[in-house]
Amino acid sequence: MVKVLFVCLGNICRSPMAEAIFRHLVKERGLEGKIIVDSAGTGNWHVGEPPHEGTQTILKKNKIDFSGICARQICKEDLQEFDYIIAMDAENVGNLRRLAGYNKTGFIGRLLDFVPNSEIADVPDPYYTGNFSEVYELIRKGCEHLLEAIIKEKKL
């Protein structure tokens, strides 16, 4: 079983969007029994809350199910439990590496690093920009490439 965790700051915009999109892609490929998907935030401001209204709206528009997703804060155990810890930006990668310390962890990297020749490295935070459509497109593309990389690496 391959475990993938998406991480952003508050776990209400980008990472739950990535979780929902990635689950959708996994289901389309018939890999539900082989890949587990979750999301978390590095901060604790929104623990227990559903995804942001803007995230819900763009996911509904694209017919992506987000039921059951609610914000939680990442913990050290997640870093050992998950095979892929996928951050939305460099700040979150730094926070994850600090949390990990010298402990062995799953792969920690940015989502858009999986997109070949991407001119954008960090997924902007729509909590501040309000641009949920742009973020959806970036995350969708990143998730598609991430899934292909996992399928190839894990021979699924």
Can you put this structure into words, describing what you see?
44% of the residues lie in helices and 14% in strands. With 156 residues, it is of the alpha/beta class. It has one domain (2-154): 3-Layer(aba) Sandwich (Rossmann fold). It has a four-stranded parallel β-sheet with strand order 2-1-3-4, sandwiched between helices. α1 (14-28) crosses α6. Residues 2-149 form the Phosphotyrosine protein phosphatase I domain. InterPro entries: LMW_PTPase, Ptyr_pPase, Ptyr_pPase_sf, Tyr_phospatase_low_mol_wt.
Task: Provide a concise account of the structure shown.
The protein is an alpha/beta fold and 156 residues long. Helices cover 44% and strands 14% of the residues. The chain has one domain: Rossmann fold.
Fold topology:
Elements: E1 2-8, H1 14-28, E2 35-41, H2 53-61, H3 76-81, E3 84-87, H4 90-100, E4 107-110, H5 126-129, H6 132-154
Parallel strand pairs: 1-2, 1-3, 3-4
Helix pairs in contact: 1-6
